[in-house]
Design a protein that fits this description.
This protein has three helices and 17 strands. By secondary structure, it is of the alpha+beta class.
Length: 380
């Protein structure tokens, strides 16, 4: 029987099998390499707990996208990463260089806020990049004036306008313009160098602010004879000097010749005395300060030492108050006004007079009809 064994065919089959086995091994190697590459790209097997991301929206709440990973937010409260004191991250997850912050969370403009080395200032800007403006700032020492009507004013931060001193609008003036015995411009002086134009029968002139009122009009001219009318008729700067005022003695104010008093020695009721003063261009004297009260009483003693004198204080039943002839409230209706009353006065609501027995202290009369001497006044 002829043998069927063919060595060449056997060897050929073995070669084919070897090639197939080699190709299978190569395929498995490439498959494994491709798998490992995909794992690396997709963070396969990452034990950090994160997941892949491209934008912040790819991450869950409480996470942010950093270098392709969603990681938990770690924030110190001011936008700075607590784990990286030299860097800051905003909502976009950007890692910012020291001194900058991604405050608006927009990756398009990067770390847009630069932290000021001077800290927060009053300027309407977020200097420390914490999301707030002008917080915790303190004004410069001595910024606002503390004298005159400005006393008690404290600075306020007004954003882009900076620090401002809001002085009282009713009385503050710069420059000072009002003659009111106030330091309106807060420079420590009252009514300094205030003057204004004036006109009298003698023509135009200038008067000066003294103790809260304008005085001493400098109008000059030839004028005429002086009469008893509270006017400088002869244009010499004095009022009613050498005038015939009947039973009334003219006594000028030493500090202001245009301010005079008449001490009248014809007895009248309070109402009649007030009317006679008006006929002479005066009014019953308003003794609104201790200095004026003392000066008028001393002058009255020089005219007649043994008499009581009506002056301008009276009780107005319509207004239910003690007041002066111009309607200004007097003490005790105005508790802040000057008090010249005797210790037990006023004990009734009538009219006041200067009482001889009390050294010129004020006393309320039994009524306003008593017949007394009286004091008139020209000017304030």
């Amino acid at each position: 029987m002829k043998s069927t064994f063919e060595p060449r065919r056997i060897m050929s089959g073995l070669a084919v099998a070897s090639v197939v086995s080699f190709l299978s091994m190569v395929g498995r190697f490439f498959a494994l390499s491709l798998f490992l590459l995909l794992c690396a790209l997709l963070a396969c097997g990452d034990d950090g707990g994160g997941s892949g991301c491209v934008a912040p929206s790819d991450c869950a709440a409480g996470e942010r996208c950093v270098n392709g990973d969603c990681v938990p937010r770690v924030d110190s409260g001011s936008g700075h990463d607590a784990a990286r004191p030299d860097a800051a991250r905003g909502d976009s997850g950007l890692l910012c260089p020291e001194g900058t912050v991604d405050l608006n969370g927009d990756p398009e403009d990067g770390c847009e806020c630069t932290v000021s080395t001077n800290g927060e200032r009053c300027n309407g800007a977020d200097d420390d990049c914490d999301g707030s403006t002008d917080e915790g700032v303190s004004p410069p020492v001595g910024l606002c004036s503390s004298t005159g009507v400005c006393a008690g004013t404290t600075p306020s931060c007004s954003g882009v306008s900076g620090w401002e001193c809001n002085y009282p609008s009713g009385t503050y003036e710069d420059p000072e313009m009002s003659c009111d015995s106030l330091d309106n411009d807060c420079d420590g002086a009252l009514d300094e160098a205030l003057t204004r134009s004036c006109t009298t029968a003698c023509g135009p002139g200038t008067e000066t602010c003294v103790d809260g009122s304008y005085q001493g009009c400098t109008a000059s001219g030839s004028g005429g004879a002086e009469t008893c009318n509270a006017t400088d008729d002869d244009c010499d700067g004095s009022v009613d000097e050498d005038a015939d005022c009947g039973d009334c003695t003219v006594v000028p104010d030493p500090s202001d010749p245009a301010h005079t008093y008449l001490f009248c020695t014809t007895t009248q009721s309070w109402g009649a005395a007030a009317a006679d003063c008006m006929l002479k261009g005066h009014h019953l004297a308003d003794l609104e300060t201790g200095a004026e009260h003392g000066a008028v009483w001393a002058a009255a003693q020089g005219v007649r030492r043994d008499r009581n004198w009506w002056f301008g204080i009276h009780y107005d039943s319509a207004d239910s108050q003690w007041e002066w002839t111009d309607g200004t409230a007097a003490y005790p209706s105005d508790s802040t006004a000057y008090d010249g009353w005797a210790s037990d006065q006023p004990d009734r609501n009538t009219c006041g007079f200067l009482q001889q027995m009390q050294g010129g202290d004020w006393k309320a009369g039994p009524d306003c009809g008593a017949m007394l001497y009286y004091v008139c006044e020209a000017g304030d």
